[in-house]
Amino acid sequence: MTTYQGKCHCGNTEWEAKLEKDQQGHILCHCDTCKYLSGSTFTLNQIIPKANLNIKKGESQLKRYTYYGESGKPVHCYFCPNCTSHVYHHQLVMGDDTIILRTGMLEQGLKEFKPAAEIFGKAKLPWEKEVAQTFDTLPPS
Ligand SMILES: [Zn+2]
Ligand SMILES: [Zn+2]
């Protein structure tokens, strides 16, 4: 288990995340929601236990945006109200103790992590090259 430091763009929010060896990589999500929320073609994520994320600064100021996922259950997105960086998402369908962390904002993670998988490949744009094993939606559990 390694601890990674993260911060939002403006620096009002700071956090650290403990990641197991097999979580030290980016899961690229190509879903249409990620396109809108990031303004790009995919986001960088990892699924971790909620207890392994420690928001050291700015947690009480975080704002929440909620949308409904493909499961019909809510997805809560927690973001810095000043700069709008998304710190983590909580998909209720995955239970109370599991969150989706944005690995693109972990200082060492962004430099060191490799693509581990690509999800929602069905929504991937045709000019994007495959960089990891790609699943149409989610990997079979
Ligand atoms: Zn910020
Ligand atoms: Zn997505």
TrEMBL record:
Pfam families documented for this protein: GFA (PF04828)
PROSITE patterns attached to this UniProt entry: CENP_V_GFA (PS51891)
Keyword Lyase belongs to the record: yes
Domain of life where this protein originates: Eukaryota
Domain CENP-V/GFA: 4-128
GO molecular function: carbon-sulfur lyase activity; metal ion binding
Span of the signal peptide: none
SUPFAM superfamilies: Mss4-like (SSF51316)
Keywords: Lyase, Metal-binding, Zinc
InterPro entries linked: CENP-V/GFA, Mss4-like_sf
Family: Belongs to the Gfa family.
Protein name (database record): CENP-V/GFA domain-containing protein
Organism this protein belongs to: Zopfia rhizophila CBS 207.26
